[in-house]
Amino acid sequence: MADAETLIQSTRHGEVLHLALNRPAKRNAANDALIAALDAQFAHIPADVRAIALSGNGEHFCAGLDLSELSERNVFEGILHSRGWHAALDRIQYAPVPVVAVLHGAVVGGGLEIAAACHVRVAENNAFYAFPEGQRGIFVGGGGSVRVPRLIGAARVADMMLTGRVLDADEGQATGLSTYLVQPGEGLAKGLALAQKIAANAPMSNYAVIQALPRIAELAPEQGLFVESLVAAIAQGEPAAKERLRAFLEKRAAKVEKPQ
Ligand code: 1HE
């Protein structure tokens, strides 16, 4: 078995950490060791990292669960296995800094579940998305029934699972699986550029977006509005916020620019 460092390749680009799923011969199929390595990486994010880009080495982002390990589990082991995925993918969703997924080729099954745990998704236009669980006689176990319906709606997820429908990159973009679509080979550069932009924000603002926003969105409006006020006041009280507001008023900060 390859060691954790090999299964997840880690490269620093200043304040941005680039992590790459690194099992290309198996299309980055996620065996237990790969999930453990992912979990370990997200459990030990260096304090000076401000954003993360997550990609897959080789021809595909991720072929999902390593199916060769499946037959060896009984029901109880199956539950624990799924809970292990949940713990690892929660570390991504609730990471201290934002995570930009860079998607290409197959983003299927557990691969789509990993992508859905990230905060921003960039796709190359060769990406395709599927939940082949129905054909394999299994069900999602890595949070796919929780996170993906929140992105594209339960009806689309049911269609993908029941009929084996494969969404191409354009469909993925139209439905909201990705929010950036780029040419093949350009995904990582785009993902790193977005991560650098994110890294330049005040850390507390980023933290509020990734930690508070999804939780507020699940609350009833009245509760959500109240929690929003608390988070707004906390973020605004940070020295970084005060300096950034002053910089704008003193015309030292960039304006919001209209897209070209
Ligand atoms: C694998 C896996 C895998 C590839 N587990 N070994 N996921 C799936 O049902 C997707 C299954 N995989 C595929 O449909 C295709 O492999 C791909 C479309 C992703 C890529 O096709 P291709 O032609 O580039 O590669 P390949 O020749 O099919 O695969 C290369 C090798 O990777 C080959 O092994 P080799 O020893 O013959 O070289 C494949 O067997 C191996 N491989 N995918 C194990 N998934 C938390 S629950 C989540 C539940 C799920 O994710 S279910 C969906 C599982």
From TrEMBL:
GO terms for molecular function: lyase activity. SUPFAM superfamilies: ClpP/crotonase (SSF52096). It comes from the Bacteria. Keywords: Lyase. GO terms for biological process: fatty acid beta-oxidation. Belongs to the enoyl-CoA hydratase/isomerase family. This is Crotonase/enoyl-CoA hydratase family protein. It comes from Rubrivivax albus.
